[in-house]
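Support request, priority: normal
Reporter: lab tech (M.K.)
Component: structure prediction queue

Hi team, I submitted a job for Cbb3-type cytochrome oxidase assembly protein CcoS from Campylobacter helveticus yesterday, and the status page still shows it as pending. I've pasted the exact input below so you can check whether something in the sequence is tripping the parser. The sequence length should be 70 residues. Please let me know if I need to resubmit or if it's stuck on your end.
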Amino acid sequence: MNLVIMMMIGVSIVVFFIILATLLWGIKNKQFDDDYKFITLNDDEESLKEAVELERRKKETLRDKARKEP
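Reply from support: The job had stalled in the queue. We restarted it manually and it finished. Here are the results:
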């Protein structure tokens, strides 16, 4: 029984170091950086106004549905 527990602990430690090495490799190679996230947003003023108007219409529609239901 002791052998099984020691083997499980050993395997867990090995798996931990593999996961840690993979995480550090990803950080080193900038896998988690998103340099272009905000650069690619091309919203002009008209598009933003349309989005606000759409949200306003959705809220009105939901409000009207709520009023109609008993």
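The two ends are 66 Å apart (CA to CA). Helices lie at 2-28, 45-68. Let us know if anything else looks off. Ticket resolved.
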